[in-house]
Amino acid sequence: MKKFVSHPIGVDQGEKILFSEFAEGGGMWTGEGPRERSAEIRFSEAFRSVPVVQIGVALWDVDTSSALRAEVKAEDITEDGFKAIFRTWSDTKIARIRVVWTAIGEIAHEDDWDLS
């Protein structure tokens, strides 16, 4: 559990197209086996400490002739941003993916002291 003591809380959110590979015949659409795409996401301003990040799929365009296998997650979360990851495997064919995300955490306040 993430506990916030006495600092203001910030909420940042956004969405990102991770890939669109149908038109050019990219590996997510034509390939097989383990495949991954990622994108660096930067927050609109830095958090005071590492925030909690929730990520989900807002749009997926998939071939339904095989089983749908997918994983979406946020990795390498820092005060400044994170990496959005999409993974699939086997014979699943994905044309495009758009993710949405929300980050919640402590933000700096103008009355904070810098003792360094």
Core attributes:
116 residues; mainly beta; three-stranded antiparallel sheet; 6 strands; elongated
Explained architecture:
It is a single chain. With 116 residues, this protein is mainly β. 3% of the residues lie in helices and 49% in strands. It is built from one helix and six strands. It has one helix spanning 27-30, and strands at residues 9-20, 35-42, 52-62, 71-75, 81-88, 94-106. The strands form two sheets. The protein has a three-stranded antiparallel beta sheet with strand order 1-6-3. Strand 4 and strand 5 form a beta hairpin. The longest helix is centred in the first third of the chain and has 4 residues, at 27-30. The protein is elongated. The two termini are 29 Å apart. The model has no long low-confidence stretch (mean pLDDT 92).
What oligomeric state best describes the polypeptide chains here?
Answer: single chain
Instruction: State the secondary-structure class.
Output: mainly beta
Number of strands: 6
Helicity level: under 10%
Mass-distribution shape: elongated
Low-pLDDT stretches: none
Query: Taking strands numbered 1, 2, ... along the chain, how are they ordered across the largest sheet?
Result: 1-6-3
Q: What is the residue-mean pLDDT, rounded to a whole number? A: 92
Output the number of helix runs. 1
**Biggest beta sheet summary:** 3 strands, antiparallel
Instruction: Provide the gyration radius in Å.
Output: 18 Å
Tell me the β content: over 45%
* N-to-C span: 29 Å
* SSE series: EHEEEEE
